[in-house]
Amino acid sequence: MLRDKNLVPLSRQHQHALALCVRIDRASPIADADLAAWQTEIAQHFRSEIRFHFAAEEQVLFPAARPFAELNSLLEDLLSDHRWLRERFGEAEAQRLSGRDLSALGTRLSEHIRKEERQLFERLQVLIGPEQFATIGQRLDEVLKEADESCVLPTEATRLRNSQR
After folding, report:
1. CA-CA distances (angstroms) from residue 88 to 1, 11, 54?
2. Helix (H) or strand (E) holding 79
3. For residue 3, is it within any domain?
4. What band does 22 get if pLDDT is binned at 50, 70 and 90?
5. Computed from CA positions of residues 74, 53, 106, 160, in that sequence, does the dihedral angle turn out positive or negative?
6. Minimal CB count within 10 Å: which of 25, 93, 119, 129?
7. Distance (Å, rounded) from C-alpha 160 to C-alpha 158?
C-alpha cells in the first residue's frame, strides 16, 4: 500500500535506521577493536534522530491508534520495543555493549521497524480518515522538527569493507 504522505517522515527515518541495521548485520561479528566506534555511531543515531522518532510515535501516532482495540496489543509490543531499544541505546552511549549486544540491537530494531511499517501503518491507513491524518501529520512535524534529517556517516571503523558486503 502506498504510504500516506503524513507518515512519510516516519518512514524516511525508518529507512535511515534500517540502513544502520543492515550495516550492523553485515559487519557482524564486530571486532572488539571496532566496538567503541560502532557504539559511538549508534548513540549518535539515537541522539540526532531516533529519540525524536520515538517521541513522535509515543506522543502522536500511538495515541491516535489507541481507540482501535485491534491495535492495542501491537501498540503494547511497540512500546515494549521502545523501552528495550532505549536501554540499548543508553548502553551504547555508555560504551557498554558487546558485539553480540550490537547484533541483538540491529535485529530488534529491524524487526520493530517492520512491525510498524507492515502492521501499524498499514492498518492506520485503513482505519483513519484523511482529515485526521492531516492533523496527525501536523503534530508529527512539530515533534520531529528538531530531528537531524541528514544521515550519520560511517567512520573508518564502521564503514563496511569489501569482504563485509
Report:
1. 32, 22, 14
2. helix 72-93
3. no
4. very high
5. positive
6. 129
7. 6
Residue 2 counted as domain residue: no
Chain position carrying cell 572488539: 32
The confidence score (pLDDT) of residue 140 equals: 97
Residue 119 and residue 78 in contact, taking contact as beta carbons nearer than 8 Å: no
pLDDT at 160: 60
The one-letter amino acid at 1:
M
Tell me the mean pLDDT in the region 140-147: 94
CA distance 93 to 90: 5
Give the pLDDT score at 149: 66
State how many domains the chain has: 1
Domain, as residue range, for 32: 8-147
Q: Is residue 154 part of a domain?
A: no
Give me the mean pLDDT over the 92-115 stretch. 98
Q: Which residues contact 125 (CB under 8 A, 6 or more apart)?
A: 1, 3, 4, 7, 133
Pick from 47, 159, 149: which is nearest to 55 by CA? 47
Q: How many CB atoms lie within 10 A of CB 99?
A: 17
Does any domain span residue 51? yes
Three-state DSSP at 83 gives helix
